Structure formats: C-alpha cells, structure tokens
Request: fold
Amino acid sequence: MVLWGTLIAYLAIMVGIGIYCRKKTSNVDDFVLGGRSIGPWFTAFAYGTSYFSAVVFVGYAGQFGWEYGLASTWIGLGNAFIGSLLAWFLLGKRTRIMSKYLQTSTMPEFFEKRYLSKPLKLSSAIIIFIFLIPYTASVYNGLSRLFETAFHIPYSACIVAMALFTAIYVILGGYHATALNDFVQGIIMLIGIASVVVCVLAHKGGLTEAVSSLSQIPDNSGNTGTYTSLFGPDPINLFGVVILTSLGTWGLPQMVHKFYTIKDERSIRTGTIVSTIFALVVAGGSYFLGGFGRIFVSDEELTQIGSDGIIPKMLESLPEILIGIVVILVLSASMSTLSSLVLTSSSTLTLDLINPLCKNKLDEKKSLIVMRAFIAIFLAISVIIALNKNALISDLMGYSWGALAGAFLAPFMYGLFWKGVTKISVYVSFGVGVIGTVLHMIIKPAGTILGFNVASPVNFGMFLMVAGLIIVPLVSLVTPKMKKLELDEIFACYKQKAEVEVTDAIPDAEKLK
Reply:
C-alpha cells in the first residue's frame, strides 16, 4: 500500500505538471528551449537530473562498484568536477552566447551555422536520433529491473508503462514541463541518495564495520584490502570510466542543450555551483554505495543476477518505506533523463532533418505536431530494444556515449573557442565516432591497449573521444580554412559594444573643431 500510494502520487504530480505547462508552450522556441528564460536552479537541476539516471544508480554503480570497490567513488567525483563544474565553467557562457547569436536551438543547427554547412546539420541529426536510442533503452533497462524487484511487476510491463508516462508529460509541456519536473525530481534524488546510503550501511553495522568487512574480501590475486584501497584493483580501467562518464557530457546533445536555455550570466554562476553540489551528492553517493556490493552479493549470486542486479539485491534488506523512496528516487532520475533524451531527439529530427527536406517549410503549429509525433516514435523504438533484458546497461550506454561524444565533443568544444577548425575535420570527427562504434559492435575486439581493456564499450568510447580531440586540430592544420570574414562575423558574438556616459561637463574645444 505504501509503495503503490507513493508511486501513484508521484506519477500524478508529473502528469499534472505537464498539463500545467501546456499553456506555456505555444511555439517551437517554448517547446524546445523554454523561451530561453529558465532560471539558474531549474537549469542546474535539469542538467544534473539529465546526467544521472537508473543507468548510474543501478547499472554503473553496481558493475563498477563490484570491479573497483570504494575506488569507484572517483567516478562520482569526476562526474562532479569534470562533468559538471568544468563543463559549466568552460562551455556554459560561450554556448549560451553563440547559440543565441546564431539563433540555434539544437546541436545540429549549431554545426550548420558555426561551420556554414547544411550537410553537417543533416548528418549530425541522423547520428543523434540513432545513437540516443540505445541510451534511452539502457535507462528503461535499469528502471525496470528495480521495479521488478520492488513491485514484482513483469519487466516488459514496467518498460511500456514508463514510456507512456514520459510521453504524456513531455508531449504536453515540452521543456517547461521537463525543467519543472527535473527540479522536483532532483530534490527527491538528493534526499533519496543520502537516506539510502545511510540505511544500507547501517544494515551492515555502520560505515566502519562495512569498510572493515569489505577490506577482508580477497581480490583475484588473493590479496585483501584491495577493494578499500585508494585506487582499487585496476586504476587504469577505472580512469577510462571516469573520462567517458565525465568528459563525455561535454559533447552530448541532451546535456549541451541545457546551456542553450540559460536566462542570463548570473544564472551561469549559480548553475555551476548548484550542479556541482548535486553531482557530488547523487553520483558520489551512488558509486560510494556500489563500492560495498561485495559484502551484500556473493560470487555465486552474481552469476545468477548479473552486475545489473547488484544494487537491487543490496536494497532488499531495506524497510518497505525506504524501498518506496528508492523506487521514486530511481524513477525520478530516469524519467528526467528520458524526457531530456526524447525532447532532444524529436526536436533534432524535426527541426534539422524533416523541416529542411520539406519543400514548404513547416510552420510553428505543424512543427510542434511533428515533434510530438517523433517523441512517441522514439520511445517506441527504445522500448523494443529495452525488451532485450540480457543487454548490459553499461554496454548500451557505452556505445551511445562513445558514438555521440566521439563524434561531437571535439568539433563542438573547439568550435566555441578556435576559428581554425575546418569543415573537413568535423566530418572526420563524425566518422571516427560513428564508424568506430559500429565496428566495435560488430567485431567485438579483445585484448588491451596501454592497459585498457578494449573489449569494454566504455573504454572504447573513451578512446573515440580522445581520438576526436587529437584528430580535429591535426586535420584542421592541413585542410582548407573557412573565410576570415565569415569567421569574424560568427565570433563577433563575443565582442559586445557598450555605451558609456561622458564624464566631462564641458567638451574639449579641440575635439569640437
């Protein structure tokens, strides 16, 4: 009764927010960007809740907590200081200024107007739509596993139900509804993570006793204390996870989109602080909790439930009211991420692919209808993929982030700061991210490079991101540059003209001649 009552109340609030925000969504700019008038707290929470979902809490925290022990907390710290603090500090202001100046509302539009190339817009729109789907499927996967444990609802029914509720409030309210829901969901996530960590560790005698128990578990070499050491049993591959999950956000369209919606410069300063603290609590807490997985789950149990079942297994000992909090916590995290993903995908496909291909461009009303239709289509495809319960959450997310961040990170980041980026280098970066990911999915390579396990989609995604950061400037140095006048016009957005008052009451006579 407690679980069902909490769940129904939560879902009713989400749908109610969607209905309320429908009145504020009268055009495409409102639906996609919230009229670029979203305040700092709402923007920061939207960034954080889009960042962290069931993928982190159920999939990554369980798998990497098992592999690296308490050292997996470094992933959460990386997410906070690289994925949030540095991202806001370096990209927030320049993204907001240039996107407003170029009148862009999506990442493909940015590529078109920054590099004056319509093919870049079309190709990036296709990449986004295709590779956001496995990420969405991974969110459904993690969410449904927890629901199956808590409510004993069939896995497939969970996925379909969550897709329907996400569709309702996003289709109704657009970005206004998403931002307001994200704020509510973010508060739930902060309270939920803190409560769950305290209660789960209390079940094992408290923090000191839990750390002591974990330190006695031997690693593969028979050594004890490895899983409580500073960098864990495999620091090299741990570093790969930190880079993918932290630096990767800089090139993800659904994350960058949040900077487009910022209200003013003051909002950027506030948003930087709030989003960093949010990431410290949510990501840091999730990976810290996952680090204790080995004292809750045995090796034999792991073979039965898989790494995605570790966190649900750890939560079985909680009182029913706390399980209800956890369910709402993960539901909040997941629905906020889902809403961001489907809004990004549908707006990209409509504005950057369908509209340019139409002989008669879609007006505001038709564009909204098409966007809402694509939200439903995108969710349906994601549900079909997520119904494959055997797909590892970390693999789905690794492929998605590897392709998107591998393709977009370098051309987007360099494009904000450096006039020397060439169109050809952007195409090469797109090719590296997409072709590299597809080949990895087909070939499934084995072995290691510099100690990194290349069989892992997470590590390979990290390689693709780093490759893009190296390749783009190298290719730009040897390929034709854009025209200086065109570049000066684009970067003029960072040079604002200001009027000042004359302080001299009597003008200089010489100047008047």
Notes: The longest strand covers residues 448-449. The chain is about 75% helix and 0% strand.
